[in-house]
Amino acid sequence: MSNLLVYRTLLIKFAFSSLLIFLHFLYALYSWLVDQTIFKQPDPWQNRSINGYKKYRLKKLPNHLVVSVCQEEVFYEYLAKLLAWALFLEVPVVSFYHNENGISPEELFFAFRDQYSSLLTKVNWGLEFNDNIKFESKKCINGYKWEPRIEVNILTSKHSKLQLVNALRTVCSTEEEFSDTLVELAINKTFPMVEPDLVVICGKSCTTFGLLPWHTRVTEFLTLKTHYNVTFLKFYKLLEQYSRNEQRFGK
């Protein structure tokens, strides 16, 4: 009797382990198929119906979204997609961050132009985009009215470290009494930008790599495994998660 009980116990354990392995295999297969673009959703800009807009409306959006790609190789095709999708969801400011100057403004612009030339009228090219890029953008939209709905910036470590250095120089040169307000005003003067509400970190570890330490006091950080082959659904789910979360601002 005892041998039969042991046998049944081992059989149940084996069946349960086999089921877990099978489920893990199915999930791995599904993830692989998604990465191979078999189940990918179409780009929302390809189906701009009224119902499509309503389907992806969110109650809360970040005023400033930062995408950090410090941990992986930069793929401009997918950065351009993230920019276009942020525009679709009506995020007003998007910045791409790499702590070692790893993002080329020119390559990002041309990747966006090649995929979304019709959207150039809606983009304001901000920090690190030189006059040549802005001239090229205006040349591409010749005959159309420029009505920017999104600002895009490229951030590097200099916007973190150098910003603080310049702000401290300003504070030290003033005759006003030292205070937190004085420092904050100096920082805003040297680097006038909306504080990020959301930072999406692409990679395995959740680390800031020195991203805007003064501006990210109450910023929410979410992770994305990789920006390579990213789908609109994955990007939307991140913003949906941000929309559901209640920011307590340190309370």
From TrEMBL:
This enzyme catalyses: n isopentenyl diphosphate + (2E,6E)-farnesyl diphosphate = a di-trans,poly-cis-polyprenyl diphosphate + n diphosphate
Q: Which Gene3D superfamilies match?
A: Decaprenyl diphosphate synthase-like
What is one term from the GO cellular component aspect held by the record? endoplasmic reticulum membrane
EC number from the UniProt entry: 2.5.1.87
Could you list the residue ranges that cross the membrane?
12-33
Instruction: Please tell me which top-level EC class this enzyme sits in.
Output: transferase
A single Gene Ontology MF term assigned here is:
ditrans,polycis-polyprenyl diphosphate synthase [(2E,6E)-farnesyl diphosphate specific] activity
Location(s) in or outside the cell: Endoplasmic reticulum membrane
This chain belongs to which protein, by name? ditrans,polycis-polyprenyl diphosphate synthase [(2E,6E)-farnesyldiphosphate specific]
